[in-house]
Design a protein that fits this description.
This protein has nine helices and eleven strands. Helix 2 packs across helix 4 (about 65-70). The two termini are about 30 Å apart. It is globular. The longest helix is centred in the first third of the chain and has 14 residues, at about 5-15. By secondary structure, the protein is α/β, with parallel strands linked by helices. It has an eight-stranded mixed beta sheet. A three-stranded mixed beta sheet has the order 7-6-9, with helices on one face. The mean pLDDT is about 95. It has one domain (about 5-210): Rossmann fold.
Length: about 240
Amino acid sequence: MSKEQYRRLVWDTLVRENATLPPYPVHGRIPNFINAEKAASLLASTYEWKNARVIKVNPDSPQRWVRISALREGKVLIMPTPRIRDGFIILDGVDAVKASTIKGALMYGKRLKSIDELINHVKHVDLIVEGSVAVNMYGERLGKGEGYGELEFAILRELGVVDADVPIATTVHDLQVIDDRLPQDPYDVPIDIIATPTRLIMVDRREHRPSGILWSMLSREKLMSIPILQELMNKGKRRL
């Protein structure tokens, strides 16, 4: 099966089993799911979470509980802006509920649009939390298919604010955990921790992660729409 076939299988299964929550439609999104707060709570019980001061979390609906938990615990929260067009947002010491949505983050957080702003405000990210459509016990993950989660990781790797072995977690419904091996590309970023509403899965041996941006696989469309990518390319004098 292809990546898209696995995504559709999961989306269809979640809808059939009445396991979803708004926003709708679920297809084409990181799906919001029933008991997402329980998955976030299990993630917050891990050593990796407790040991993290700075956490980067995706902006999708099911991970709102993760963002709330981070801010309530006094952690520094890093969020990407939509499609990374305005870089990243840093949130620290703000209202956890109000700032946990994209609209709230843009209102209460500070936008980090350039390389200098990023490295001046974010010295090191201790934990990354990603949204997922499908995952498996090997740490293979599928997002919704646009590649922004992988690109966010690659940008932060290029800037040296995340290590190759930074813990990466995801929160998903149990129905999103697939038994099969999932198709993966060179830019895909395997994960370490899967938190569902009922269990924690610690990946034993995951695959190697990319060391930065794979420029040869980056589309010109993405490059032209993300200023920080253009800045990185110009700084490295690279060409697509």
